[in-house]
Amino acid sequence: MEYLTTIEMSVKWGITSRRIAVLCEQGRIAGAVKKGKTWLIPCDSEKPGDARKTNHCKRGVIEC
After folding, report:
1. Cα radius of gyration (the chain)
2. Alpha-carbon torsion 15, 20, 21, 23, what sign?
3. For a tag site, which of 3, 17, 19, 32 has the least CB within 10 Å?
4. In this predicted model, what pLDDT tens digit does every residue of 5-16 receive, in sequence order?
């Protein structure tokens, strides 16, 4: 299996390498392993969705 670093994944996913490291620490990226100070992420991993987004109705809207 081929692995990419957080820096390489940040280019692929369009988010910062620090954010990817946080996602790894939270266990939100399947198969990510830490080797020393570096997170290694399987190259075929899917970018986790934004946990802040929900399918709930917007505030102030009566009907959905």
Report:
1. 15
2. positive
3. 19
4. 999 999 999 999
